[in-house]
Automatic annotation (TrEMBL):
Glucose-methanol-choline oxidoreductase N-terminal domain: residues covered: 57-268
Keywords associated with the record: FAD, Flavoprotein, Membrane, Oxidoreductase, Transmembrane, Transmembrane helix
InterPro entries on file: AB_hydrolase_fold, Cholesterol_Oxidase, FAD/NAD-bd_sf, GMC_OxRdtase_N
A Pfam family the protein falls into: GMC_oxred_N
Organism of this sequence: Emericella nidulans (strain FGSC A4 / ATCC 38163 / CBS 112.46 / NRRL 194 / M139)
Superkingdom in the source lineage: Eukaryota
Any one GO molecular function term: flavin adenine dinucleotide binding
Protein name: Glucose-methanol-choline oxidoreductase N-terminal domain-containing protein
Transmembrane segments: 733-756
Length: 1146
């Protein structure tokens, strides 16, 4: 933070705090703009000030770099024909407003009680010798400490002479400490770094389009100029960006369709300025700014507007166009080391040197020695040539023939060189007389150009007031309102604040604002004082609240930001179900999208919630399909490395609120999904980290479109150069390095995914007990005995809606449903049908539709001793016992026993098939069946078929660790063998998409085969596998492998059960066969064989088959979208069974 002696608050706001519209938008922050901002804020209007420069260095416009000379225009000048009649014919037109300006800016002359600066004394002595009028000029500078008119504490001027390069001693009563701080105190919002490009009329309001210049955005300068921000001015837009800036804005606005006078950019003036130096005179001037304290830049003047007694200011002194003033000045400190050589080269003349030497050898010798001394010992050496150099600034009138145009969208000044004008020659003649008093040589600020151009410190015009009230003679009327063309019609809310040296700028601005406010009956409070304002003061309050004014309190800024550019295609509207399809649709109709964001990096504080790092996004989104202009992003969020909802290991999530010029509020949701498929693949990792899949929502969260945007390679390299810090770079560097290290670690965890046994970041922790308890709990837990005295468990879930509610299928109660799981191990925490961390599990889905649900825990998961020696064949008795219990105890609305519908998965489905084939479960006991993955015929997937070709793996494991293969280690500790096994199983062959770091997932793949397509799981399910898979006994595995090799059901003696005789026992049961198309446990051919066999044997009426695309084995039950992709099909089959209750067996 740079030192600033001014004890007043930071005035500017962060850009993300900008609202989409204000009553008043002020462009610029100089004298005119400051007046507009202050007076409109005091009128109770919401005000936004847009300034190109940075605060302190740029906020305040020309008031930061001028000398602060407060000179009122003379009555004769105000009567010139160029002024509008309303001003020209009224001698007191500006008197009231000059007084208002003086009250705010508090001008005063250099005090007589202070030592007189040498350069002032020199100018006064010169004027006396020439008998010209001398006076001290009023300066908007404090020479004694105190508070100014707005309540800001001011310091005394130190006399450094730095006014023209930035006075930092706290004494200059410039716009930031007067009008702008007053506007801030009354609620105006000031935004720096905003370059207004053009203004567009939109109904009764104005759209102000601007480019935001932030450190780092320069790498995307072209994109930034193409994708402009905007803000709406509902009532007034005041243009106060200076003669050059305002004219440029109006010229560009004309190109964008704003109707204006054809005189925009014409009749500009350099104010007749002439900067001349009296080099190497005979007296010490002390005219170089710096430590020698020469005094303020300008302190006094010779007034050649007023005729002196002997009329020596020139023959044209009665012609006010030819009159002028001569002011003293200072050489800016940065120019001091080089200006000596410039003067020597300009003034050297060998012939003149020798004539002067022989004419006055002593004087010429002194001048030569002074020049040598200054070259050798520097410009501040007493007696040196530069210390004996005076600076003179002449101000007059010129021919007003300079023109500003736009060439390739850049401003270009054109005009005849003022140096050839007669007025300039007369001023030079007067200056030669001034220099002759002291024997100095005339030096210029530069060498003459080809057209004898002159320097100007006060460019004027470009959008002049009209002398006749029409657009044929000027650009604005007497109020500053911009004409719509050559006639008298004006843009009533678009006001240009006149530019003229300081006092007249301010007075004209005060007049314009007061009169246009009066036209709309707006009352401006000029009487209420602010009180004392210091660093910790607060404004009286914003005019309306911004709920997004501050970032999340759980985060603090790291002080670093970067900029990124993305481009791609979107479909608007989009009916596509995938982002890739939406992108193709967008390409087909040339619906492009460009995003340019500056992201400020925030770090989570200790004790905060959320991701470790967040980004605060400010930028623009351009998409013609959504809005005719760019859409502004203010306070968007970027969450770094958050666990994805699907199989992605981690995501970067964008949530960007969009404001359109049409007034719509949209939200863009974008995700960079960095998944397991990026492991060991640099191209895939690059694709994942530079691709954003997005969709756009309206205010009611209805989808408007979707698509894909990417960071091109060239943009990525440019992005790497955009990291900048808000504060000191060196002290902030460790913070950036920590963030970049964190970023690299996260990507490395994905890249080396298969080698990481477990990672809490990439695999989220298990669900909290509070979240689990919020899920539906069993209404009753039963333990029943089978016919062979084995104990099984039956969880009962009552329907969520009351019994007797009419179903959509017919006017009867919903049937009970029995769920049969596969082998999951002993004492699992949860059933696969009732996972508490699944968004909508099967039990919840069907109980909410009026079904009483029964979830069976077979002997392989309930009793350890029974499970150790049991097989799938034995579990047929468990199913028979459960069906008998349901039929005998379930309530029904009629006298008949209820028939349960069975949803069976994997070995539960195989056990059900065995129960039917052996006749212990009769078809007439069942309403219908959904058999997932397998039923009677069994065809292993590729890797399972290889593992099942021999029992060698089973025997080897039994030898090493016994008859139980664990999956969960929640209740036991791993030994060395299990850690080795974890590493070996991490190499289990799966597709890149299905690589993960979960040891539990690897163990299920080894024991049963790959259970799912990882893309169908959310992280809560994948991170909690050990809660619904505990392990399996090797005897069960051996029985399963034997059946897989045989291709069908086998009893404990390995005798086939699928015979023609046994098959008759299956007749009459409606069955829905279901398989995931990517099932790697049982090939989908398993259910296809059963489906074809039963259709051939019993006819096609009772059988259905559903192949679930892009699903695997178990994700048809536990998938994150299974309720939308799968459950509806099972529900439809239940309803079909109810409508066709009379079966062939009955």
């Amino acid at each position: 933070m740079e030192y600033r002696p001014d004890n007043y608050p930071t005035l500017s706001h962060s850009p993300y705090q900008m609202k989409p519209e204000y009553d008043v938008v002020v462009v610029g922050s100089g004298y005119g703009a400051g007046v507009a901002a202050s007076r409109m804020a005091r009128a109770g209007k919401s005000v936004a000030v847009l300034e190109l420069g940075a605060e302190w260095r740029g906020l305040g416009g020309g008031s930061l770099l001028n000398a602060g000379v407060f000179l009122e225009a003379t009555p004769e000048t105000m009567r010139l024909s160029a002024w509008p009649a309303e001003i020209r014919d009224n001698s007191d037109a500006l008197a009231e407003y000059y007084a208002r300006a003086a009250a705010m800016l508090q001008p005063s002359t250099f005090p007589t009680n202070l030592p007189t600066p040498r350069k002032m004394a020199h100018l006064e002595e010169t004027a006396k010798k020439l008998d010209w009028r001398f006076s001290r000029v009023p300066l908007t500078t404090f020479f004694e400490p105190g508070r100014n008119s707005t309540g800001v504490s001011m310091c005394a001027n130190q006399g450094s002479g730095h006014e023209s390069t930035g006075l930092n001693d706290g004494s200059k009563n410039s716009i930031p400490v007067t009008y702008l701080v007053d506007a801030w105190a009354w609620g105006a919002e000031i935004f720096c770094g905003c370059e207004v490009r053009y203004v567009e009329r939109d109904g009764d309001s104005y759209l102000v389009h601007f480019a935001w210049h932030q450190k780092g955005r320069r790498s995307f300068a072209e994109d930034g100029m193409a994708q402009l921000f905007w803000v709406r001015a509902k009532e007034f837009c005041f243009l106060g960006a200076g003669a050059l800036g305002t004219t440029e804005i109006l010229l560009r606005s004309k190109k964008h369709g704003l109707s204006c006078s054809p005189l925009v950019g014409r009749n500009m003036s350099g104010n007749g300025n002439l900067l001349v130096f009296g080099y190497n005179g005979s007296k010490e001037i002390n005219g170089v700014a710096g430590s020698t304290k020469p005094g303020p830049t300008i302190t006094s003047m010779i007034d050649c507007y007023q005729k002196t007694p002997n009329g020596v200011c020139g023959s044209e002194n009665n012609n006010k166009v030819g009159a002028f003033v001569i002011e003293d000045g200072c050489v800016p400190e940065p120019f001091a080391p080089v200006i000596e050589w410039m003067f020597i080269m300009q003034t050297i003349n060998i012939k003149h040197f020798f004539s002067s030497f022989f004419g006055c050898p002593l004087r010429q010798t002194k001048r030569t020695l002074a020049a040598i001394m200054s070259i050798v010992r520097g410009p501040y050496i007493p007696g040196g040539a530069i210390q004996r150099t005076a600076t003179y600034l002449a101000m007059s009138h010129d021919n007003n023939e300079v023109t500003l145009t736009l060439e390739n969208d850049n401003p270009q000044l054109q005009g005849v060189g003022e140096g050839r004008g007669a007025n300039i020659h007369s001023i030079k003649d007067a200056l030669r007389r001034v220099l002759g008093v002291d024997g100095a040589s005339m030096g210029y600020s530069y060498f003459y150009g080809f057209h004898q151009e002159e320097v100007s410190v006060h460019p004027l015009g470009g959008a002049n007031m009209s002398r006749d009230g029409t657009g044929r003679e000027g650009v604005t009327n007497h109020l500053g309102q911009v004409f719509t063309g050559q006639g008298t019609d004006v843009h009533t809310g678009l006001i240009w604040l006149s530019i003229n040296p300081l006092a007249t700028i301010t007075a004209l601005a005060e007049r314009s604002v007061a009169l246009v406010a009066g036209q709309r009956h707006i009352k401006i409070d000029l009487d209420t004082e602010n009180g004392d304002i210091d660093t910790y003061s607060q404004p009286r309050g914003p005019h309306y609240n911004n709920s997004h004014a501050e970032p999340n309190r759980d985060y603090v800024s790291t002080g670093w930001h970067f900029t990124e550019s993305l481009e791609g295609h979107v479909a608007v509207p989009s009916s596509c179900v995938s982002y890739a399809a939406a992108e193709l649709e967008g390409k087909g109709c040339s619906s492009t999208m460009g995003i340019l964001l500056t992201v400020e990096i925030y770090r989570r504080v200790e004790g905060g919630t959320g991701p470790r790092y967040k980004g605060l996004c400010t930028g623009t989104v351009s998409c013609r399909s959504l809005s005719r202009r760019t859409m502004c992003v203010m306070r968007g969020d970027l969450d770094f490395f958050v666990a994805g909802n699907e199989s992605a290991s981690t995501t970067l999530t964008y949530t960007l609120p969009l404001c359109t010029v049409e007034g719509r509020r949209l939200t863009l949701i974008g995700v960079k999904a960095i998944g397991q498929s990026a492991a060991f693949s640099i191209p895939r990792l690059w694709e994942a980290t530079t691709t954003v899949k997005l969709h756009i929502l309206d205010f009611n969260n209805n989808s408007l479109g979707a698509g894909v945007v990417r960071i091109p390679l060239l943009s990525f390299w440019r992005q790497m150069r955009t990291f900048h810090t808000i504060g000191p770079r060196l002290s902030s560097l460790p913070v950036l390095l920590i963030f970049l290290l964190y970023f690299i670690i996260q990507l490395s965890l994905v890249f080396f995914y298969p080698l990481i046994p477990f990672c809490g970041i990439l695999s989220p922790t298990r669900a909290h007990s509070q979240a689990i308890s919020a899920k539906q709990q069993p209404s009753e837990i039963l333990e029943i005995l089978t016919s062979d005295s084995a104990k099984i468990r039956l969880d009962v879930y009552d329907p969520i809606q009351p019994l007797g509610t009419e179903s959509r299928a017919g006017k009867q109660s919903q049937p009970p449903i029995l769920f049969l799981p596969g082998i999951t191990g002993l004492n699992t925490s949860h059933s696969i049908f009732a996972l508490p961390f699944q968004r909508c599990n099967m039990v919840k889905y069907f109980s909410s539709r009026g079904h009483r649900c029964y979830v069976l825990t077979p002997r392989w998961s309930h009793d350890g001793q029974t499970a150790k020696d049991g097989t799938v064949f034995d579990s047929r008795l468990d199913i028979a016992a459960a069906i008998h219990h349901i039929s005998s105890t379930s309530p029904t609305c009629d006298s008949s026993s209820p028939k349960p519908y069975i949803i069976a998965h994997c070995q539960g489905s195989v056990a059900l098939a065995m129960a039917l084939l052996t006749g212990i479960v009769k078809p007439e006991q069942l309403l219908g069946i959904t058999a997932n993955s397998v039923f009677m015929n069994q065809v292993f997937g590729y890797w399972n078929s290889i593992k099942a070709s021999s029992t060698l793996l089973i025997r080897a494991y039994e030898f090493l660790d016994g008859p139980y293969f664990p999956i969960s280690f929640l209740e036991r500790r791993k030994d060395l063998l299990q850690y080795i096994l974890d590493f070996l199983l991490s190499l289990y062959p799966v597709a890149r998409r299905d690589r993960c770091t979960s040891p539990s997932c690897h163990r299920t793949s080894f024991a049963f085969g790959l259970l799912w397509n990882h893309e169908n799981l959310d992280q809560e399910i994948h991170g909690n596998i050990e809660t619904f898979f505990a392990g399996t006994f090797t005897r069960s595995l051996e029985h399963i492998t034997r059946m897989g090799c045989a291709g069908s059901c086998l009893n404990n003696n390995l005798e086939p059960l699928l015979t023609q005789k046994n098959l008759q026992n299956v007749r009459g049961v409606p069955i829905l066969f279901m398989s995931g198309s990517e099932n790697q446990v049982f090939n989908p051919e398993s259910t296809l064989r059963d489906y074809e066999l039963l259709r051939r044997t019993f006819g096609e009426h009772m059988y259905r088959r559903f192949l679930v695309e892009r699903y695997g084995h178990l994700d048809t039950i536990v998938g994150s979208q299974a309720d939308k992709d799968v459950y509806w099909k099972v529900e439809g089959h239940i309803n079909w069974c109810l409508r066709n209750k009379t079966t062939g067996a009955e």
